[in-house]
Amino acid sequence: MNAHILAKCQRFIESLAHMRKLKMRVIRADEKSITVVLPVQEQLINHAFDTYMHGGVLTTLVDTASSLSTIPALKEYELCPTLDLRIDHMSTPVLSQPLYAYAECYRVTRNVLFTRATVYQENPEKPVAYAISTFMRPGEGNTDPAFKAVIDGDNVEEVN
Amino acid sequence: MDTLQSLVSEAHKTGDYQPVIDLIPYARVIGVKCERFGEEMIFRLPRNPENIGNPTIPAIHGGVIASFMELTAAFELTLQLEQPALAKIIDFSVDYMRAGLDRDTFAMCKIERQGRRVGNCSITAWQDRKSHPIASARGHFLLDTLSSFR
Fold this sequence. Notes:
The structure holds two protein chains of two kinds. Chain A is an alpha+beta fold.
């Protein structure tokens, strides 16, 4: 666990409107990987059809977790757009448990970042989905400086 | 509670697909809409400040675009089936071509192959023009999930 990286990831997730809407949080972060949680919430449940109802939201969770895993992988914050994302669904998540996404960025090159992610519920050994993804690096100095400052925590007042 | 089957046949009759779309909570959260033009269905994701994932451009969250495309495919399959069932996702792969700007986004799904159990789809998403896609995706869906919706 690395408090500095965790704080950076937390600032990133809090600065995005859609992440706030879904109440996503980073619960673990270190130099290699991050874990995000999507809590159980009323807006994602349809009580009439008690079955596959996470439809789509798992994809958003995976994209977010993969994108977050690029933060510890880079020295300076760069806002990296997704190039592609592939998800394999192993089993149907249950509605009564939060969804966790563990992601790591396993290879960094000058232009591209490669990530992999695992989505699970109660048991990390029994994933509900696997994903691999690539991200494009804008390059140092090509990320909006104001946004970079927010993520790096240089400008704490703006975050609150 | 209406069965899925009656919801789908009612939607085909009236051309109002919202009751079917609203079955999936996340489709409601991001605001998916659907319009039918003859036999073609075009799905629409209206501009929504809550869908932003890159505040600097600003651009729609990549996950929202992928989810919108995934839902487009799931609905297209559900609505085309003789015995409607909510299609269940097996795998999904999306390529991003351009940033999805803070405006309306559209998507269409082409069913490449529909077997008894599995449907293979390709999906295109665009904003200003269809020949200028922001993303393309493909996915497989399991179709024999009717029993769980009875």
